[in-house]
Write a structure and sequence with these properties.
By secondary structure, the protein is of the alpha+beta class. The chain is built from 15 helices and 31 strands. The protein folds into three domains: 209 residues, 2-Layer Sandwich (BirA Bifunctional Protein, domain 2), CATH 3.30.930.10; 134 residues, YbaK protein; 96 residues, Rossmann fold, CATH 3.40.50.800. It is globular and about 95 Å long. The two termini are 21 Å apart.
């Protein structure tokens, strides 16, 4: 490929509306262009890297026994209603009607579609197991699209689905896919950590997320420094933190004008946060959920959802919903409150082990002091559950070791679905005794476009991207110092043709721009190797090979360039 023919419009200035490094560099280096909020066009450089990621995915999944198919993006509402997820999936689903007023959605995922497909074709245990996958665009109406390709409305995803006769078969498929994912991300050059996770709207039992460790990650993960335990903070198992037992003091109301946050109350009353309780109010569909944790802890929304058996993710309650159940924003505690059909109270386990703490008095500008939950809460009328987020102050639930916290980008997830969809959609097979049984399913997703962004988040410097060789748009760029010099261009073209014939993915920067511009673009785009052809080349018969990753420069005889390039690429 010649750079003069490459459509890669680079930018000299950092885009002001780009949130993270990957988005900034992909815009600057001419990889993507924003079309609307959460919608991007992939330009040739990005598409070359995307295709390389897809190639790695295909090789590993094919080796694991999966078979590639392609299903429609537009899905009929009937199958989603049959599974019970049409309403449960929430506002992220993009719904539409055709000219005959039939309901459809743009596929955010394909569990219903694949189950419907397979149930009409498989009817015997002899046809199992089967594992089918596709690489396709997915659509989710994100409330707040951000971070470029990491949270967009349209994205490229690989989704695979396995069907087995029993749980033992599912365990085998799960392990195969888990190992394939480990290989995929290693081959893409990512530093990834598989962590225990929540299955969310997909459902099922066991699930692991593959997290690319990066500061720009939206997910918090917790991991043990001694054993292999690692979990998304939403699924981490916090222990019960007990306070030193005290003599119970009399419940008392104190005036706290305008102190409607726990930090303001603690400051006004000169209390440490652990001697306060914090109220957060959610809504799950039409039910209002009051969640209570210690003032120094944070509420785990996923744990709250599980505690009340919610079918959809919690949302913050509106002022109207607070009024409906008689709550006063900023001054809430469970004291004197009772649950009802439209109102539930969920209290963290650690709160129940506190003594003489401060919490809302359920009226404006007032708080209780000396709350003792076991005495003052209607304990038969509340749900007690572990609903606080685990922290690095907790200990490992597996070995008791010290925990550490990191940021991660979720690039893949594997699920054990069990019979959730096969039972709902009637996907059965006849066993050896001729009896019908629901197929046992697994689901396995990889964010292909998100993997591209994650690689940049892990590999960059102040000058631009540093691509792992396996997913770089080009492996090598040849930069003649002066493209108007016929002798330099002849030497550059000879090297280019030799590398191309050897199967090296090489770009010749034949543009008439100054050398400094070409060098800056080479660093910005992130080619793993740069070959500089200069006047010194003609005199010494040597070129300079520069490794983007570490800046190492190596002078190499022209006759040895191919061998040296192949040697260096093996290390990148």
């Amino acid at each position: 490929m010649l750079a003069s023919k490459l459509y890669a419009p680079t930018l000299r200035e950092m885009p002001s509306d780009a949130d993270v490094i990957s988005q900034q560099y992909m815009l600057r280096a001419g990889f993507i262009r924003k079309m609307s909020s959460g919608l991007y066009s992939f330009l040739p450089l990005a598409w070359r890297s995307i295709r390389k990621i897809e190639g790695i995915v295909r090789e590993e999944l094919d080796a694991a026994g999966a078979q590639e198919i392609m299903m429609p993006i537009i899905q009929p509402a009937e199958i989603w209603k049959e599974s019970g997820r049409w309403n449960a999936y929430g506002a992220e689903m993009i719904r539409l009607h055709d000219r005959h007023d039939n309901e459809y959605c743009l596929g955010p995922t394909h569990e219903e579609m694949i189950t419907t497909l397979v149930k009409n074709e498989i009817n015997s245990y002899r046809q199992l197991p089967v594992n089918l996958y596709q690489i396709q665009n997915k659509y989710r109406d994100e409330r707040r699209p951000r971070y470029g390709l990491m949270r967009s409305r349209e994205f490229i995803m690989k989704d695979a689905y396995s069907f087995d006769a029993d749980e033992a078969g599912l365990d085998i498929q799960y392990k195969l896919m888990y190992d394939a994912y480990s290989n995929i991300f290693a081959r893409c050059g990512l530093t990834c950590k598989p962590v225990e996770a929540d299955s969310g709207a997909i459902g099922g039992s066991n699930t692991h997320e593959f997290m690319a460790i990066a500061e720009a990650g939206e997910a918090d993960i917790i991991h043990c420094t001694k054993c292999d335990y690692a979990a998304n903070i939403e699924i981490g198992k916090p222990g019960i933190m007990k306070q030193t037992e005290e003599a119970l003091k009399e419940l008392e109301v104190v005036e706290t004008p305008h102190a409607n946050t726990i930090d303001a109350v603690a400051e006004m009353l000169s209390l440490p946060l652990e001697k306060t309780i914090k109220a957060v109010v959610f809504a799950i569909e039409d039910k209002v959920i009051l969640a209570i944790v210690r003032g120094d802890h944070e509420v785990n929304e996923v744990a709250v959802q599980h505690a009340v058996d919610g079918n959809v993710e919690p949302e913050m309650a509106t002022p109207e919903q607070l009024v409906r159940v008689g709550l006063t924003a900023g001054f809430i505690s469970p004291v004197g409150l009772k649950q009802s059909e439209e109102f539930a109270i969920v209290v963290d386990e650690s709160v129940m082990e506190t003594f003489n703490v401060c919490g809302g008095a359920n009226k404006p500008d007032a708080h209780y002091i000396n709350i003792n939950p076991k005495r003052d809460f209607n304990v038969e009328n509340i749900i007690v559950a572990p609903i606080r987020l685990i922290t690095d102050e907790d200990v490992c639930p597996t070995c008791g070791g010290e925990l550490a916290k990191s940021k991660g980008i979720e690039v893949g997830q594997v699920f054990k679905l069990g019979t959730k969809y096969s039972e709902a959609l009637g996907a059965t097979f006849l066993d050896q005794n001729g009896r019908p049984n629901p197929m046992v399913m697994g689901c396995y997703g990889i964010g292909v476009s998100r993997t591209l962004a994650a690689a940049i988040e892990q590999y960059h410097d102040e000058n631009g991207i540093i691509w792992p060789r396996s997913i770089a748009p080009f492996e090598v760029v040849i930069v003649p110092i002066n493209a108007k010099d016929e002798a330099l261009m002849e030497t550059s073209t000879t090297i280019y043709n030799e590398l191309k014939s050897a199967g090296v993915d090489v770009l010749l920067d034949d543009r008439k721009d100054r050398a400094g511009v070409k060098f800056k673009d080479a660093d910005l785009i992130g080619y793993p190797l740069r070959i500089t052809v200069s006047k010194n080349t003609l005199e010494s018969n040597e070129v300079e090979l520069k490794v983007r990753k570490n800046g190492e420069a190596i002078n190499t005889p022209i006759a040895d360039v191919k061998a040296k390039v192949e040697e260096l690429l093996e290390t990148l």
